[in-house]
Amino acid sequence: MSGRVRVRFLDTRPLRRSRPFRDLWIGSTASQLGGQIATVAVLAQVWDLTGSPVGTGVIGLATGLPMVVFGLLGGWLADTFDRRAVVRATTAGQLLAAAGLWAQAMADNRSVLLLLTLVAVGTSCSALGAPARRILPVRLLPKDQVAAGLALMNVSFQAAMLAGPALAGLIIARWELPAAYAAQAMATAVAGLSLIRLPAMRPEGADAVGARRRPERGGWRILRRPTLWGAMATDLSATLLAMPIALFPLVNELRFGGNPQTLGLFLSAVAVGGITAGLLSGTVTRWRRSGLVQLTAASVWGLALACFGLAGPLWLALACLAVAGAADTVSVITRGALIQLETPDTYRGRVSSVEHVIGVAGPELGNFRGGLLASATSASFSLVFGGLSAVLAIAAVAATNAPLRAYRTPPSAAKPTTPHVAEAAAASG
Question: Which residues contact 264 (CB under 8 A, 6 or more apart)?
């Protein structure tokens, strides 16, 4: 009985059994929390300098464009150099950018261009390291624990999304902007220190001594593999066709009197659903039919948002958003594990870069699509049409992609794929 109860909750085996993964998780958690604090600080500073929504909108360009451009370049880096070295170098770049943000705040900088340039530099470094960082869990953990590791990463991300903005508000209110940027710099430093004990992670086939190798040809063609394009198409369908965040202010205005507290509850409901699903992900991460799980979870996301478009009472609207957040978390966890396990190590950097770009661009384009359709029709129509369209698109992927429907997570390997991880794990025990 106790075993059946444990399986329902968050699977913590990766934290208990792998010291390198535990270090990585602590560092990633710190980095995500610092990033949320910096996001609020930058938003507040740009608004203070410009007083214009156009000014705050330009922040999206300063972050979105580097994510796409340098994210793809980061895939090549991850397939060419030691992944640990790439993550270390890019984290060092993020730390320098964070120090620059603190320095300009201390100097009472009044130049928006300087501020956004530092934001773009930090985002570029993050994007360059993102594909390599995505590969680390699959190289540190046995195959049957990769999904559990990604679930732990997702829980820390959701927790940072929930707590970070509130913490930033408290810091800025009490100690002003320089303290917020200092908190981000300290969090980034913790992330850098967490990488010290990680083992080397050269691409498979790389020279045992040299850190560089020529990437295998066909790194982009491997995306034709049905399980890979199917998993990415499922995610793109869900975000591009049913992303709801841009419609939250309009729904709040029309149905709930524009109360800002209600608007905050919309965002919190999604995060609460995500965290709850993460904490109860022990069952999901042990299911081997991850392709079918992703397809189902993405469909539930679309249906929940369509129901949100029709919900009248506030409690029902929040419940729909919580269900959507939970479904999104399950979909993200299973998709991430499937893509990493299905991709040969020599191609993981480039495939991870495409996954990263889809994860960045899909929601932004989805919010734009939703707002455009709502302006021509109504918020309810945009939400319902988008949610049902996402379900139909996902159904089309499922109907035409038998390998994705039938995909099963490989059983655990006898040893992790990264040298020295077994010894490190044994030492931590």
Answer: none
DSSP 126: H
SS3 113: helix
Residue 217 DSSP label: T
pLDDT under 70 in the chain at which residues?
A: 1-8, 52-57, 60, 205-220, 260-261, 264, 282-283, 285, 412-429
Give 220's DSSP letter. Answer: T
List the structure tokens of 266.
């919309």
The four Cα atoms 355, 360, 364, 366 give a dihedral, to 10 degrees, of: 20
d(CA 37, CA 181): 8
User: Residue 81 in 3-state DSSP?
Assistant: strand
pLDDT for 412: 59
- Position 223: which residue type? L
- Which residue type occupies 331? S
**pLDDT, position 294:** 93
Q: What pLDDT, in 10s, does the model give residues 235-253?
A: 999 988 998 877 877 888 8
Alpha-carbon torsion 400, 403, 409, 413, what sign?
negative
Question: Residue 76 class from Cβ within 10 Å (0-12 exposed, 13-18 middle, 19+ buried)?
Answer: middle
Q: In angstroms, rounded to a whole number, what is the distance separating the alpha carbons of residues 83 and 201?
A: 5
Amino acid at 180: A
Q: What is the pLDDT, as a whole number, of residue 308?
A: 95
CB of 78 closer than 8 Å to CB of 352: yes
Classify 12 as helix, strand or coil: coil
Alpha-carbon distance of 409 to 398, in angstroms, equals 17
Per-position b or e across 306-340, b if 16+ CB within 10 A of its CB: bbbbebeeeeebbbbbbbbbbbbbbbbbbbbbbbb
- How far CA 369 is from CA of 227, 240, 241, 393, 414, in Å, comes to 27, 7, 7, 16, 47
pTM for this entry: 0.71
Do you know the residue count of the chain? 429
Burial of 214 (0-12, 13-18, 19+ CB in 10 A): exposed
